[in-house]
Design a protein that fits this description.
The chain has 451 residues and is mostly beta strands. It has a single domain, classed as Methylamine Dehydrogenase, Chain H, CATH 2.130.10.
């Protein structure tokens, strides 16, 4: 049965038509990357450099952004991986001639590593232990901390039982000589919450398995990190559990976990070759990406979804997976302020980028999000994985975030699968550039919000 499919009339006030003065996204270029699995990128604005990870080939590619419209590949660095390790994420500090990449071990329940490499010559300078399954790393802008989300999403069969390591965080206190940095592992306490009849779809010994959700640490899978402006705290998404964790970096402790609730809005829930959002979607948000506004008052989430069953197999009246939205929350209280409703899918459809085959699944799947300020206005940019697109959202009214522009990130909207996202402001022109790693086609999309 489909989850609550109804025909509805959506008033014009909620259709979020862009204003005439709204900034627009321009796609400038699509560059072929030097490796395979081009998934995550990070930018050092002070030196106009970017690093792009190639997860399948175990490499990091360095780019020069002196001409931000035409990034120039400088070199490809071979990572010091051990046999069977898979690199998953990369981060470059605000200043310094080095970067950190994280890699998960071959064995599902084994800890991973963070690798410190020189940008100048690619040498490995140090390695640090992480938790199991490190999936992303971010470096705080002052250079004091790096925080790693250890997803530990894999299960293994031990003694006839399915076992997973607990999700965790790894905090690296960065020293002036980064090779002398120190590491603290941060554990999660149990975080029970409504499972809404959802389950995880995981491969164990190359066989598909359905695993019930739970609130124990082994079911918590931290995804993406966002630092607060004070540099002393961070937020982390717990996608499958539909929660966000608050982290005190000085104390190296998770201080609270807040639920993100459900969204209800018009949506296309039928795979019939056309876009018509005449149904009603009731869904858990289950965000992947997260970002914090510059003033620290709000955070936003990219509500992708990652649990099962799919729309067509979800019982009537039960929530589906993935809000298909960008949501805005009050940071202090964790209360929801507003979301984009059907606007992301609609904007993708209007741009000719919506893939109707995803309607019975999770729509355009908002993936990663960042926030930037422009002329006193706050905007969010969010990748739409299944539309091969980037959306620009005006956050002037946090209770009604408005989608103002959508543009393709590559040349194959069905296959680009944009993932990583980074922002760079050109000091010469003042234009805002957005760089997108298209994992599906191993390309780098270059987009601009012109002055």
């Amino acid at each position: 049965m489909l989850c609550a499919i109804l025909l509805v009339f959506v008033p014009p006030a909620f259709q979020q038509a862009p204003s005439a003065s709204a900034p627009r996204l321009e796609r400038l270029a699509v560059l072929a990357a030097a490796g395979k699995g081009s998934e995550i990128l990070s930018i050092q604005a002070s030196t106009a450099r970017a690093v792009l990870i190639h997860s399948k080939s175990g490499q990091v590619e360095l780019f020069d952004l002196a001409d931000p419209a035409h990034p120039r590949s400088v070199r490809v660095i071979e990572l010091a991986l051990e046999q069977g390790e898979d690199v998953t994420s990369v981060a470059i500090p605000a200043s310094g001639d080095w970067f950190l990449a994280v890699a998960k071990a071959k064995r599902p329940l084994a800890p991973g590593r963070a690798l410190l490499h020189s940008l100048a010559d690619g040498r490995v300078l140090a390695s640090f232990p992480t938790g199991v399954g490190p999936d992303c790393i971010y470096i705080e802008k002052s250079g004091k901390f790096a925080l790693i989300a250890n997803e530990a999403e894999e299960f293994d069969e031990v003694g006839g039982k399915l076992v997973s390591a607990p999700g965790s965080l790894t905090l690296i206190r960065l020293a002036e000589d980064p090779a002398k940095s120190t590491v603290t592992q941060i554990a999660f306490e149990p975080a029970p919450g409504p499972t809404d009849g959802r389950f995880l779809d995981r491969s164990v010994a190359e066989l598909p398995r359905e695993i019930e959700l739970g609130g124990a640490p082994e079911f918590l899978e931290p995804e993406v990190v966002a630092f607060l402006p004070d540099g002393a705290h961070a937020l982390v998404t717990l996608q499958e559990n539909n929660q966000v964790a608050y982290v005190d970096l000085a104390a190296a402790k998770v201080t609270r976990i807040v639920p993100l609730g459900h969204t209800t809005h018009a949506a296309d829930l039928l795979d019939d070759g056309r876009f018509e959002d005449g149904g009603i979607l009731l869904a858990r948000r289950e965000p992947d990406g997260i970002a914090v506004t510059p003033d620290g008052r709000f955070f936003v989430t990219a509500d992708e979804g990652d649990t099962e069953p799919s729309v067509e197999k979800t019982a009537a009246g039960m929530p589906c997976s993935g809000g298909r939205t960008l949501s805005v929350f009050d940071l202090a209280s964790g209360a929801l302020l507003g979301d984009t409703g059907p606007a992301l899918d609609r904007a993708a459809a209007e741009a000719g980028l919506y893939n109707d085959k995803r309607s019975r699944k999770k729509g355009c799947e908002p993936e990663m999000v960042l926030i930037f300020e422009r002329d006193g206005r706050i905007f969010a940019a969010v990748t739409l994985e299944r539309a091969g697109a980037l959306a620009l959202v005006d956050l002037a009214d946090p209770t009604h975030p408005k989608v103002v522009s959508v543009a393709p990130t590559g040349n194959d909207s069905a296959g680009d699968e944009p993932e990583g996202l980074a922002h760079y402001r050109d000091p010469k022109s003042g234009a805002d550039y957005l760089y997108v790693a298209n994992e599906g086609t191993d390309t780098l999309g270059v987009l601009r919000v012109p002055r």
